[in-house]
Design goal:
With 90 residues, the protein is an alpha+beta fold. The protein has two helices and four strands, in the order βαββαβ. The protein has one domain: ORF SCO4226, nickel-binding ferredoxin-like monomer (Alpha-Beta Plaits). It has a four-stranded antiparallel sheet with strand order 2-3-1-4. The N and C termini lie far apart (29 Å).
Length: 90
């Protein structure tokens, strides 16, 4: 299973639009999982100053991520594989 980022543009309209986008992503994940597509929503990040939102997901293929993005109604300008590293306690 690979990890991907779905990057999209969100204009400076506040955190409500980010929360709505994340909620749509989570609903689409549940729908696809109910259909037997093994996808997971890992986290989402909104960079307000850059007007950029990134949804990190785990999926079996890039096509599955594209389907997820479309199902969530998220117009992505970039989808690609990524490597995530969790911060350790120091």
């Amino acid at each position: 299973m690979a990890q991907y980022v779905v990057e999209t543009y969100l204009s400076k309209v506040g955190p409500e639009r980010f929360e709505a986008s994340t909620a749509r992503m989570r609903r689409a994940v549940e729908e696809l999982r109910d259909e037997g597509v093994h996808v997971w929503h890992l986290r989402s990040v909104f960079l307000a100053d850059d007007e950029t939102c990134m949804h990190f997901v785990e999926a079996p293929s890039l096509d599955a991520v594209r389907t997820l993005s479309e199902r969530a109604g998220i117009a992505s300008f970039r989808i690609g594989p990524t490597v995530l590293s969790e911060a350790g306690g120091t």
